[in-house]
Amino acid sequence: MIIVNIVMTIVMVVLIGVVLKLPEYITKTWLEQTKNRNAHSIQIESYFKKVSVSKQEDILNKWTDFLTDMEATTQKYTSSADENMAELRSLLHDTIVYGSDRTVKLLAIYMRNVFNTPKGKDNDASDQIVYYAFIISSLKEDFTGYHIDPLTLLKLEISDYEKYEKIYTKRKKKIQRQLNE
């Protein structure tokens, strides 16, 4: 009977020790997993910052040209010359490679809009310009960490913005809905 009591006491001491150490073990495990995830994210971010600063600047500049010099840039990228089509494919490729998930989704929404426009019918210019502003805004956030409202970019470039503000706001809401799908 004394042996049973001693064994039961030892078992109870061990169980109490395990129960007392369990929260510490769970905390250490969670902390280690969090550190590993953060280290991986930092490693990815560091790689893209180191390798691609000039490339990112180039991509952002090319997309910004769509907004600041829309007519010439649109002409350049939409003409059927092989050289221009290759440059457009290169811009799309680089945007996919260096852009965030959000930017790539915006690009996909924009391209789907372009492809779904019936042949012979031009896309609505207000639609296009808001897509450009969204892509530029997203790229700027990707590359610099600063968020700029796409409509603020339009206010910079469109002298009669107030006249069409309701249309731009409507387009913005449409794009935001598509982003959240």
Average pLDDT taken over every residue? 83
Q: Could you tell me the strand content as a percent range?
A: under 5%
Shape: elongated
Report Rg.
27 Å
Can you offer a commentary on this structure?
87% of the residues lie in helices and 0% in strands. It has helices spanning 2-68, 70-78, 82-98, 101-116, 125-144, 150-157, 161-180. Helix 5 crosses helix 7 and helix 6 (150-157) packs antiparallel against helix 7. The longest helix has 67 residues, at 2-68.
Task: Describe the secondary structure blueprint for this structure.
Elements: H1 2-68, H2 70-78, H3 82-98, H4 101-116, H5 125-144, H6 150-157, H7 161-180
Helix pairs in contact: 1-2, 1-3, 1-5, 4-5, 5-6, 5-7, 6-7
